[in-house]
Amino acid sequence: MLRELPSIEELLQAAESHGLLGDYPRERVADALRTAVERSRDELLGGAPAEPAEELVAGDFLLREAANALELESRPRLRRVLNASGVVIHTNLGRSKLAPSAFARVEQAALNYGNLEYDLAAGARGSRHDHVEALLRGLTGAAGAMVVNNNAAAVLLMLAALAEGREVVVSRGQLVEIGGSFRIPDIMRLSGARLVEVGTTNKTHFSDYERALTDDTALLLRVHTSNFKVVGFAEEVPVERLVELGRSHQVLVADDLGSGALLDLPASWKEPSVASSLEAGVDVVSFSGDKLLGGPQAGILLGTAEVIERLKRHPFARAVRVDKMTLAALEGTLLLYQDPARARREIPTLRYLERGPQETRRLAKRLAELVEESVASAGIDSSVCVRESVGKAGGGSLPLLEIPSHAVALRSGVEASQLEAALRRAPLPLIGRVAQDELLLDVLALDEEELEEVANTLVWALSQGRAEEAAGD
Fold first, then answer.
1. Is 389 helix (H, G, I), strand (E, B) or coil?
2. What is the predicted pLDDT for the residue at 469?
């Protein structure tokens, strides 16, 4: 049978290979065929091949194996997934989805030349800040605005430009660590500013800040702990009092909001808005573009005209600037905020966070119907029901918020953890969760048009699981 294996040149000359050679370079096709032939040779020599020996040496089988390998290699590493985790701003899944109108602007910017840094009226070089600065000022009332590539970069630029070589006073209870083990003290060290900690983990008083002020103090920094909360015997100084202290000592006040909300959120969420910080009189405020704002990854800086101009002139500003596609996506998102009702309807993050249990129950019931129909037509035995669930904002936002939701719970002959793993390997991966030996598919961050795709992916994974169990038996 080994002598029956065709040569690589024979396979390349076969009519069936013409399609592969049209899609991939000849050398890549040849490499994939070599791998397929070597695998068949190893199977034959092993004495217990998974396929019949005649199949393993057939040219069409080897070409099919090579085609599958090439398709797998060429599949995008950054892929679309279906989010049935119940976490809306899922950092590992790319945080916020863009509104369709914002994506349309990204597509236009990506496919064409544009006036990124060109003033069309003057026929001279322009500034990339101009494309969103007026929008941000109009929406927030800030005198100045600029955008960098994320909020960590915004904080780094703010500290370097305003406090390099000088002291920055921060409450110990606000020395947060964000995802990936990036910590406020580390960012401060990189900026060249010197950290002065005041208060304790749970309580910081106005007098703590007062006593910390020296002639070398450049900045009073408040960091909103958007990814954790200290509850119980806790106290912190309102930003209005910090502004009062800063004004009396000619010290700037900065507010790192982390998530940042442009619209009024329910009072029970206890999330400070961008407007409230600016109204309090802070000199500069920073927040993310891809969290509660619901736009692209970006760090947004708002403040006085003088402070923002200092940030724009700092050398770090070029290192952390955003590209044309980010600006296009942010502009499209901010335009929606000019009509708050439209923003709530069209920005996915806002729409998902504000979904009520009545809507999630309806979506879950529809998903359950689709799943039952799909598994029945595939001849798969399973138990499907709708359960109440609790969703999360995620992305380091609103850590205590529990969002009433609903999920489809499924039990089958395939173990729940095995099924969850198969869903992640699907052509269109589906991210769910396992609880008490059930697979749970939460609908909080799913759109109606995605429900059928969820059902199809589930059937694919169940079929894979049954095949794997049969092979194991």
1. strand
2. 54
User: What does pLDDT average to over the chain?
Assistant: 90
Q: How far apart are CA 396 and CA 385, in angstroms?
A: 31
388 phi, psi to nearest 5 deg:
-70, 145
Reading the block at residue 133, the tokens are 């600065």
Tens digits of per-residue pLDDT, 226-236? 666 677 777 88
Query: CATH 3.90.1150.180 region(s) of the chain?
Result: 82-90+354-472
CATH no. for 82-90+354-472: 3.90.1150.180
For residues 442 and 431, give the distance between their C-alpha atoms in angstroms, rounded to a whole number.
Answer: 10
Give the pLDDT band of residue 316 (cuts 50, 70, 90): very high
pTM as predicted: 0.88
Strands 217-223 and 252-258: parallel
Class of domain 98-346: alpha beta
Compute CA distances 208 → 203, 238, 266, 355, 374, whole Å.
Answer: 10, 13, 32, 42, 63
* Cα dihedral across residues 114, 118, 119, 122: positive or negative: negative
pLDDT band at 179 (very low <50, low <70, confident <90, very high): low
- Tell me which amino acid residue 473 is: D
